[in-house]
Specification:
two-stranded antiparallel sheet
Length: 81
């Protein structure tokens, strides 16, 4: 369950509830608070895409995780072992 609402003209709250009975003993609730910074000016800049930098894998317990893709000194991907 999640709810996003304005608290004031420059404040936004995002109420989040995570229910994961296999992981948590009770629902986890949090509120993310965002403030509008009217006096500050920001430039939107291009980000760096990480697509292809991670591959599916398993941790020591067998859980699904993402692992970094290995590269050699020439920048070529090293195939998984």
């Amino acid at each position: 369950m999640s709810g996003i609402h304005l608290v004031g003209k420059d404040e936004l709250h995002d109420d989040i509830e995570i229910i994961a009975p296999n992981v948590l003993t009770k629902p986890w609730k949090t509120t993310r608070i965002y403030f509008r910074q009217r006096a500050r000016k920001y430039d939107i800049v291009e980000g760096v895409c990480l697509e292809g930098s991670f591959a599916p894998g398993k941790d020591a317990r067998g859980n699904d995780i993402f692992v970094p893709v290995q590269y050699d000194v020439g920048g070529n991907r090293i195939p998984p072992q």
